[in-house]
Write a structure and sequence with these properties.
Blueprint: E1 2-12, E2 17-19, H1 30-44, E3 50-53, H2 61-69, H3 74-89, E4 98-106, E5 112-120, E6 122-132, E7 135-146, E8 156-161, E9 166-170, E10 173-176, E11 179-182, H4 183-188, H5 197-214, H6 219-234, E12 239-240, H7 242-249, H8 254-266, E13 273-274, H9 277-284, E14 286-290, E15 296-300, E16 310-314, E17 320-324
Helix pairs in contact: 5-6, 5-8, 6-7, 6-9, 7-8
């Protein structure tokens, strides 16, 4: 990743002032570069982010396009974004002070992005060392504007691809005129919002388990197959189709395939969901189950279809047996 430029603007609602920086951040300082670098790297792989596309009427996209074409200076773009965001937040029922970090960077694939990170100000306590006539003493003081740590999860941000102008974002609900709104997609960027990969995976796994249980099938097997599908799909694609996932998980039952697809449509799932490869691998790598007798078992998701290692048996009396096979060694942990 290469960070080209970054600037920090202060949107202070304690004094109701938007303080625009007239200088970019100085990356000759290791502290400054490390902070920005860590924050950008963390959000690039955030599975919680939603995707979107600018509306045709968006007033924000033309600004990004002009920056990408070199017709608008980065500093002017960042200042305009800060002023717009300040005006929007000022209409919230309870405006919250934030610092807006605007970053021009290129990812590992050399794709240029504009990043907008809303850094919430937090009240925190620290120490202060004082000297009173030669007597050194320590004092506890309160600081009103502490920024989030470099590895803390960002509560609101947007990444705009300067090549295709696609949008990735995370936002939290805020109160405006008595209604809950998302500031970034609805007000500032004016773009659509597609479900995040994290939420999508959560929904399809829940539906798979429900369909399996309703048809007297093994929910553990259905969930493991779901996770294994995500892992295998991630090897060749950066998105997955919920419908194709259902067809793969319930390949032996057209009836369950139809039920899965019906529930996916009822949940308003899109035809394709973007998913970060590393997240798909991490999510689908293993499956953990816990029995009502207190026993917990974690196993690779791919083993669910290989009876040489594990087999789940539905007994005639309604109980379930789990058989682990071909074990050469057991390690106590």
């Amino acid at each position: 990743m290469l960070i080209n430029k970054a600037i920090l603007h202060i949107l202070d609602f304690n004094t109701n002032v938007c303080i625009l920086s007239q200088k970019e951040l100085d990356f000759s300082s290791d502290i400054v570069y490390e902070y920005v670098d860590k924050r950008i790297n963390k959000i690039l792989h955030d599975a919680s982010q939603q995707t979107g596309a600018f509306y045709a009427t968006s007033q924000f996209q033309p600004m990004v396009q002009r920056v990408a074409e070199g017709a608008l200076d980065f500093d002017e773009f960042a200042a305009s974004a800060a002023r717009s965001l300040f005006d929007i937040l000022n209409h919230c029922d309870v405006p919250e002070s934030v610092d807006l970090l605007v970053v021009d960077f290129q990812n590992d694939e050399d794709v240029r992005f504009m990043g907008l990170l809303m850094l919430d100000n937090k009240t925190a306590y620290t120490h202060q060392i004082l000297d009173d006539n030669g007597e050194v003493y320590n004092k506890l003081i309160q600081h009103q504007a502490i920024l989030p740590g470099a590895v803390q999860k960002a509560e609101a941000y947007a990444l705009i691809n300067c090549a295709d102008f696609s949008v990735r974002f995370v936002d939290k609900k805020r109160q405006m005129d008595g209604q809950e709104v998302y500031i970034l997609p609805d007000k500032l960027l004016q773009c659509t919002a597609v479900i995040s990969s994290k939420e999508a995976v959560k929904i399809v796994t829940k539906i798979a388990a429900k369909v399996a249980e309703e048809h007297g099938s093994n929910a553990v097997e259905a969930l493991s197959k779901t996770k294994n599908y995500l892992v295998e799909n991630a090897e060749t694609a950066d998105s997955f189709s919920p419908q194709e996932l259902g067809a793969g998980v319930f390949a032996d039952s057209p009836q369950m395939q139809e039920e899965f697809e019906a529930q996916v449509q009822e949940a308003h799932m899109p035809a394709d969901v973007a998913i970060e490869k590393e997240y798909a691998r991490k999510t689908g790598k293993s499956h953990k189950i816990k029995t009502d007798t207190g026993i917990e078992i974690t196993f690779p998701s791919e083993y669910i279809e290989n009876t040489d290692y594990i087999q789940i048996i539905n007994n005639p009396d309604g109980t379930i047996s789990i058989e682990l096979k071909n074990i050469c060694k057991i390690t106590n942990k």
